[in-house]
């Protein structure tokens, strides 16, 4: 295990300690103990920049299941590093912020930070694993930790609803992705992303290529809240605000983007990938920004805005993927789209992170997030207002903020679609810049609403629960850092980011485009000259202001869209149908009577075994190796038969329990006859204990009744039991008569003493040769006993309450 | 369970109990070379306790043997998993056992085997599980 592996799982390991910190130091906010870890990790990953900027890649492998090609291979390249820095960097700021946001006396901080660290470790695992199966495992872990964090205030019904929704949608996509991964493995024989990329051109005509592509995209789209799967993200806003800022804007929702970027070299060979990624992205961009305008809750606006920005990055990645179809990097028009995607990814994390924190501050200090109740907060919270201005103006794409730069590049990328003459893009190419422009107008509108409806206008103290005042200084540190970055990136984007972060990330997305000695040259211009992009931005500002001022007049268009067709209705409907349907199905056969279950099990048993015995023509009777039957065996068998039959006809339960016990003892005598002392001993003690158990239960069982009325039922039971007996006998006879391979007993006879230093073969098999079986058997036993304990104890306490 | 007030059984149990428990311990240790082992040993110990339960009632037995059988199950599982995972520390696959012999002054040569520790886990789990089930159902009036 290398230091890199340790760094990835460090949050998971550290999570174990969090409850201890919480229990032992109640006076100190648990967040202070957690904070150092992401900072150290950030510094650690920061040191990798010097490696990746020279296009070098660090790979460390830890064998996990080498026989199936599943190994924990950690890979640090430009793309993974960018995400790792985001995860640890934003993570540090969010934890610092949460220390002031979450009260140490009221909240259960131990669970909060445990979940948060769980998420951090999982997310690092996703972006730094080269093995798809390992990545998938971490991927699902991010879904689980997100579920736990959304449901953090589980007393609230909406939290539970949001948590369940996000879980169902993202895990649905995750499972589809697993299918895609397996299909990729079938085509290439490898789980390693690096190796799959190397084979990309060989698999493009494979019949499984398109299904794999669709499955992987389903995983990416659900995770990154792309239309129509975006509906879980607004409901996820029930999570505490630090979580929304961290998971649902800066990191987890970008896992889908990471996946698309990472697998672009594999799938972008096919035009379908470019179409789908760009198309879904641009639709999501529009729909998100359009829906954001009608929201009244600050966090809902931010949620839809995140959806829309994710769509923006996604569409850029889609258009950028076209670059793979043009040689070289010098005059490649489409690289600019991918550059914009990477750049905007960073910018979005900075401005949206700060805006979420602002929303949290407003909520914390006024008690509401409803912009209809808020207003005029500028005078009470001047610092928060400044941060909000910086964040929203950057989001709207105004200078001098970093959003302006990436927005301009976004327009450039979309305009290049016009020149794309691949995959029949010409027919609809004009739609891309148009939709992009319209969506940007809406982005401008909701950005302005976000800041001006909250901070300017008339102050309405009567509608607020608390008297508003500026947030404590600790709560302002993190958003201030992020807001400063928004401006710093605008002025120093080239010296800070281009060479260190963006170029290595591009090299990781397009490994095939680079030839020896070349590199991506990213240069971000603040001033392009009078080009179409600039006029588009000016148009956005002009129309945006106009529409913002006339919003009350045109807001009715939101009522045009019928509620019945809303995607949320569809989701709720499907969920309800599925629940009702499975309830009905389950109730139809789960009668609660153990007799019916035994009937199902044994009928199935007879049908399956009889069919396979018949179909495979497996029955065979070979009497040549049968030893003669002695008098003892005959007597024992006779007693067993008598005992078993009298059990059925016993008048009282006590008698049948004892008779059943007697049959068991006879069977153990058989083991003695066949010289199996271990089995005989075990069977004897088991019989004793189970007879005692029966006697203990005895008091609870109803008296035996004669059931004359249901003769047919009894007849069927008799048939089934006779059938089972016949089947077992036939199989025993055939098993004895067919010898397809050497018995394994010879191996044990030879190796028991030499390999395991034991003389009792049965015991050595139990504890050594087949120790795994024993280990899991005792685990199952323990679970079963706890289950019985829980069932009976729970019933007892419930009885007390009534 | 109800108290039976069976004086013969109660008197006999007092002696027989120790014989059964001792035998179950013997069977547990003998397991590696002769018939026996953790599974049978554990069952036999539970059998002895069950016998005690039949002679006296559950409350009396709980005061004689104040054992939390659920904890016992947990400790047993820890033994089994700990022994299995311990091999990882020596860079050998999970569940690799080690054995050796040592010379003890009075008893002569004694063989030591990590499988015994594993088997001890099995023993504890079996006793814990059986007694948890019987106790829970028995207490449920």
From TrEMBL, chain A:
<feature type="transmembrane region" description="Helical">
    <location>
        <begin position="112"/>
        <end position="128"/>
    </location>
</feature>
<dbReference type="GO" id="GO:0006814">
    <property type="term" value="P:sodium ion transport"/>
</dbReference>
<comment type="similarity">
    <text>Belongs to the CPA3 antiporters (TC 2.A.63) subunit A family.</text>
</comment>
<feature type="transmembrane region" description="Helical">
    <location>
        <begin position="166"/>
        <end position="191"/>
    </location>
</feature>
<feature type="transmembrane region" description="Helical">
    <location>
        <begin position="473"/>
        <end position="492"/>
    </location>
</feature>
<feature type="domain" description="NADH:quinone oxidoreductase/Mrp antiporter transmembrane">
    <location>
        <begin position="129"/>
        <end position="425"/>
    </location>
</feature>
<feature type="domain" description="MrpA C-terminal/MbhE">
    <location>
        <begin position="716"/>
        <end position="793"/>
    </location>
</feature>
<dbReference type="InterPro" id="IPR042106">
    <property type="entry name" value="Nuo/plastoQ_OxRdtase_6_NuoJ"/>
</dbReference>
<keyword id="KW-0915">Sodium</keyword>
<dbReference type="InterPro" id="IPR001750">
    <property type="entry name" value="ND/Mrp_TM"/>
</dbReference>
<feature type="transmembrane region" description="Helical">
    <location>
        <begin position="243"/>
        <end position="260"/>
    </location>
</feature>
<feature type="transmembrane region" description="Helical">
    <location>
        <begin position="713"/>
        <end position="733"/>
    </location>
</feature>
<feature type="transmembrane region" description="Helical">
    <location>
        <begin position="597"/>
        <end position="619"/>
    </location>
</feature>
<feature type="transmembrane region" description="Helical">
    <location>
        <begin position="203"/>
        <end position="222"/>
    </location>
</feature>
<dbReference type="InterPro" id="IPR005663">
    <property type="entry name" value="MrpA/MnhA1/PhaAB"/>
</dbReference>
<keyword id="KW-1003">Cell membrane</keyword>
<protein>
    <submittedName>
        <fullName>Na+/H+ antiporter subunit A</fullName>
    </submittedName>
</protein>
<feature type="transmembrane region" description="Helical">
    <location>
        <begin position="383"/>
        <end position="405"/>
    </location>
</feature>
<keyword id="KW-0739">Sodium transport</keyword>
<dbReference type="GO" id="GO:1902600">
    <property type="term" value="P:proton transmembrane transport"/>
</dbReference>
<keyword id="KW-0472">Membrane</keyword>
<dbReference type="Pfam" id="PF00662">
    <property type="entry name" value="Proton_antipo_N"/>
</dbReference>
UniProtKB/TrEMBL annotation, chain B:
<feature type="transmembrane region" description="Helical">
    <location>
        <begin position="12"/>
        <end position="31"/>
    </location>
</feature>
<feature type="transmembrane region" description="Helical">
    <location>
        <begin position="120"/>
        <end position="138"/>
    </location>
</feature>
<comment type="similarity">
    <text>Belongs to the CPA3 antiporters (TC 2.A.63) subunit B family.</text>
</comment>
<protein>
    <submittedName>
        <fullName>Na(+)/H(+) antiporter subunit B</fullName>
    </submittedName>
</protein>
<keyword id="KW-1133">Transmembrane helix</keyword>
<dbReference type="InterPro" id="IPR007182">
    <property type="entry name" value="MnhB"/>
</dbReference>
<keyword id="KW-0812">Transmembrane</keyword>
<feature type="domain" description="Na+/H+ antiporter MnhB subunit-related protein">
    <location>
        <begin position="8"/>
        <end position="132"/>
    </location>
</feature>
<keyword id="KW-0472">Membrane</keyword>
<dbReference type="InterPro" id="IPR050622">
    <property type="entry name" value="CPA3_antiporter_subunitB"/>
</dbReference>
<feature type="transmembrane region" description="Helical">
    <location>
        <begin position="77"/>
        <end position="100"/>
    </location>
</feature>
<dbReference type="Pfam" id="PF04039">
    <property type="entry name" value="MnhB"/>
</dbReference>
<dbReference type="GO" id="GO:0005886">
    <property type="term" value="C:plasma membrane"/>
</dbReference>
<feature type="transmembrane region" description="Helical">
    <location>
        <begin position="37"/>
        <end position="56"/>
    </location>
</feature>
<keyword id="KW-1003">Cell membrane</keyword>
């Amino acid at each position: 295990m290398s230091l890199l592996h340790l760094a990835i799982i460090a949050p998971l390991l550290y999570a174990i300690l969090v409850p201890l910190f919480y229990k032992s130091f109640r006076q100190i906010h648990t967040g202070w103990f957690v904070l150092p870890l992401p900072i150290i990790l950030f510094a650690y990953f920061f040191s990798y920049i010097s490696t990746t900027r020279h296009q070098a890649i660090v790979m460390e492998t830890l064998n996990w299941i080498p026989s199936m090609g599943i190994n924990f291979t950690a890979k640090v390249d430009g793309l993974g590093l960018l995400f790792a820095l985001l995860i640890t960097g934003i993570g540090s700021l969010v934890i610092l912020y949460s220390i002031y946001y979450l009260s140490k006396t009221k909240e259960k901080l131990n669970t909060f930070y445990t979940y948060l660290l769980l998420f951090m470790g999982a997310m690092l695992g996703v972006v730094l694993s080269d093995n798809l199966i390992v990545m998938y495992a971490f991927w699902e872990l991010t879904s689980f930790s997100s579920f736990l964090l959304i449901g953090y205030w589980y007393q609230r019904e909406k939290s539970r609803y949001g948590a369940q929704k996000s879980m169902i949608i993202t895990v649905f996509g995750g499972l589809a992705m697993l299918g895609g991964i397996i299909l990729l493995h079938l085509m290439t024989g490898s789980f390693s992303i690096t190796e799959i990329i190397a084979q990309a051109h060989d698999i493009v005509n494979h019949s499984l290529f398109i299904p794999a592509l669709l499955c992987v995209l389903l995983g990416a789209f659900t995770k990154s809240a792309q239309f129509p799967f975006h509906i879980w993200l607004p409901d996820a806003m029930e999570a505490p605000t630090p979580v929304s800022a961290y998971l649902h804007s800066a990191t987890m929702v970008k896992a889908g983007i990471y996946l698309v970027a990472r697998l672009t070299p594999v799938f972008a060979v096919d035009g379908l990938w470019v179409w789908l990624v760009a198309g879904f992205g641009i639709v999501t961009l529009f729909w998100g920004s359009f829906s954001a305008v009608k929201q009244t809750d600050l966090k809902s606006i931010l949620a839809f805005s995140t959806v829309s920005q994710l769509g923006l990055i996604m569409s850029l990645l889609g258009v950028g993927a076209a670059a793979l179809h043009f040689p070289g990097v010098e005059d490649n028009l489409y690289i600019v789209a991918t550059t914009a995607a990477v750049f905007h990814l960073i910018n979005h994390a900075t401005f949206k992170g700060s805006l979420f924190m602002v929303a949290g501050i407003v909520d914390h200090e006024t008690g509401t997030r409803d912009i209809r109740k808020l207003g005029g907060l500028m005078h009470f919270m001047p610092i928060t207002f400044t941060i909000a201005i910086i964040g929203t103006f950057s989001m709207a794409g105004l200078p001098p903020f970093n959003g302006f730069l990436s927005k301009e590049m976004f327009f450039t990328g979309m305009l290049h679609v016009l020149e794309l003459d691949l995959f029949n893009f010409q027919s609809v190419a004009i739609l891309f810049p148009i939709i992009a422009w319209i969506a940007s107008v809406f982005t401008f509108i909701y950005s302005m609403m976000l800041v001006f409806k909250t901070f300017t206008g008339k102050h309405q103290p009567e509608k607020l629960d608390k008297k508003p005042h500026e947030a404590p200084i600790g709560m302002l540190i993190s958003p201030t850092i992020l807001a400063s970055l928004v401006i710093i990136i605008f002025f120093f984007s080239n010296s800070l980011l281009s060479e260190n972060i963006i170029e290595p990330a591009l090299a990781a997305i397009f490994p095939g485009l680079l030839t020896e000695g070349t590199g991506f040259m990213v240069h971000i211009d603040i001033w392009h000259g009078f080009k179409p992009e600039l006029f588009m931005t000016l148009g956005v500002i002009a129309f945006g202001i106009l529409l913002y001022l006339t919003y009350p007049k045109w807001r009715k268009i939101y009522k045009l869209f019928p509620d019945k067709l809303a995607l949320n209705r569809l989701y709720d409907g499907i969920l309800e149908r599925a629940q009702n349907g499975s309830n009905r199905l389950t109730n139809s056969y789960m009668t609660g009577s153990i007799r019916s279950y035994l009937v199902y099990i044994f009928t199935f048993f007879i049908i399956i075994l009889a069919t396979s015995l018949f179909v495979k023509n497996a029955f065979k009777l070979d009497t040549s190796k049968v030893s003669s039957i002695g008098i003892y065996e005959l007597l024992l068998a006779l007693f067993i038969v008598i005992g078993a039959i009298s059990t059925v006809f016993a008048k009282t339960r006590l008698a049948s329990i004892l008779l059943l016990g007697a049959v068991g003892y006879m069977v153990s005598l058989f083991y003695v006859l066949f010289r199996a002392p271990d089995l005989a001993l075990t069977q004897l003690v088991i019989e004793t204990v189970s007879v005692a158990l029966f006697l203990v239960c005895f008091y609870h069982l109803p008296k035996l009744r004669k059931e004359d009325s249901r003769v047919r039922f009894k007849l069927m039971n008799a048939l089934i039991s006779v059938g089972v007996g016949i089947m077992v006998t036939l199989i025993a006879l055939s098993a004895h008569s067919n010898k397809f391979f050497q018995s394994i007993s010879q191996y044990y006879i030879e190796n028991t003493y030499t390999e395991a230093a034991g003389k009792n073969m049965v015991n050595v098999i139990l504890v050594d040769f087949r120790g795994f079986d024993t280990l899991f058997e005792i685990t199952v036993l323990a679970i079963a006993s706890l289950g019985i304990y829980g069932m009976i104890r729970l019933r007892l306490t419930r009885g007390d309450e009534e | 369970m109800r108290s039976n007030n069976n004086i013969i059984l109660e008197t006999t149990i007092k002696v027989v109990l120790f014989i059964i428990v001792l035998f179950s311990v013997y069977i547990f240790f003998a397991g590696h070379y002769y018939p026996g082992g953790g599974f049978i040993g554990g069952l036999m110990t539970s059998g002895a306790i069950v016998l005690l339960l039949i002679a006296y009632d559950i409350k009396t037995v709980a005061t004689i043997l104040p054992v939390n059988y659920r904890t016992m199950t947990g400790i047993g599982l820890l033994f089994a998993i700990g022994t299995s995972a311990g091999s990882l520390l020596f860079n050998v696959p999970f569940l690799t056992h080690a054995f050796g012999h040592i010379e003890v002054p009075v008893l002569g040569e004694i063989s030591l085997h990590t499988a015994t520790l594993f088997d001890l886990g099995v023993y504890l789990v079996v006793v814990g599980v059986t007694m948890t089930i019987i106790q829970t159902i028995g207490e449920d009036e």
